[in-house]
Specification:
Layout: E1 5-9, H1 33-44, E2 48-53, H2 58-69, E3 75-79, H3 101-106, E4 116-120, E5 123-124, H4 127-137, E6 146-153, E7 164-172, E8 175-187, E9 193-196, E10 202-204, E11 210-218, H5 221-237, H6 247-256, E12 261-266, E13 272-273, H7 280-292
Parallel strand pairs: 1-2, 1-4, 2-3, 6-12
Antiparallel strand pairs: 4-11, 5-13, 6-11, 7-8, 7-11, 8-9, 9-10
């Protein structure tokens, strides 16, 4: 049975939090949130870890992150850079913003040949999420485009310290029918969850609504589909300095064109992460509690 690979998106600039939050120690012994994801993935039976990073913090990343894992699981690094574009395309000179999460996924196409899971480096997902998706990806598949995702409940993914973006998912008989990226989601003055639509009007969201936290399960054919969609994206928007190529957008297109189905895997796990600096004390306290309850050993690695 082929073990799935974990693709960790760790090239984010961390602009809201400041600094390289992927390397910030928040566990009792300086563990990063990423350490918990890797530990949980190993426990769930993953066979390899691939990290997407930027060249400018490669040395720090190798010394502080990869050195911990080398004796536990095979690891590889790939790089997301603005210049990593298909042949015939050149990055505009004024482009500073990364090309987006699905561009980061494409960086893994030359090193991943098995089913794989995509996660963010700075999100805590819980052991159950890794276990559920690992089991699903080990199911035999007879066709392309047979994907899955772990859907978190919106109310379990909100921070008290600012707004977030989430891909709100809609269910059709256990499969994803569409995913809509909502930005500026936060608690309003009545502690209801709301977002601002394109006109600036406030709209409420159901706290039980399933949302994407970039916890996707794909097979390698996703790289081919992604490259096709990335070329279309570049043809239409390469000169828009803030346009990004997002995973939910690509998945939504594949579903609507009949190229893919995405099974929704439910979890009641409570997400947490350091989206804002003010989130950090709460994350430290939650992780300390999980250690004290025996969910995690004293030291992970």
């Amino acid at each position: 049975m082929v073990k799935p690979t974990l693709l960790v998106l760790a090239a984010g600039m961390g602009s809201r939090y400041g600094g390289l939050k992927q390397l910030d120690g928040v566990g009792p012994h300086g563990e990063t949130i990423m350490d918990y994801s890797i530990y949980d993935a190993i426990q769930a039976g993953f066979g390899k870890i691939v990290f997407v990073i930027r060249h400018d913090f490669e040395t720090d990343f190798r010394e502080r992150v990869l050195s911990k894992y080398s004796s536990h699981i095979p690891v590889e690094i790939v790089f997301q850079e603005l210049t990593a574009l298909p042949q015939g395309y050149t990055c505009p000179v004024d482009r500073q913003k990364p090309w987006g999460t699905n561009h980061a996924v494409l960086m893994g196409k030359d090193v991943i040949n098995e089913p794989f899971v995509v996660i963010n480096a700075d999100d805590f997902y819980s052991r159950d999420a890794f276990k559920v998706i690992a089991e699903e990806l080990q199911r035999p598949r007879s066709a392309k485009g047979d994907y899955c995702m772990v859907a978190f409940r919106l109310g379990n993914t909100i921070t008290e310290n600012g707004s977030v973006s989430r891909g709100v998912c809609y269910d059709d008989n256990g499969c994803l029918s569409t995913v809509v990226e909502r930005t500026a989601i936060s608690y309003n003055e009545n502690h209801e969850i709301s977002y601002k639509d394109e006109t600036g009007a406030e709209k409420l969201l159901d706290p039980m609504a399933p949302v994407s936290m970039n916890f996707w399960g794909f097979t390698p054919d996703y790289f081919d589909y992604s490259m096709e969609e990335f070329v279309k994206f570049l043809d239409a928007r390469i000169n828009e300095p803030k346009s990004e190529f997002f995973i939910p957008t690509v998945v939504d297109t594949l579903i609507k064109t009949g190229k893919a189905t995405v099974k929704l895997l439910d979890t009641d796990a409570k997400w947490f992460g350091v989206t804002y600096l003010e989130d950090r004390p709460g994350v430290i306290a939650k992780l300390a509690e999980l250690h004290s309850l025996g969910v995690y050993p004293d030291k992970l690695f």
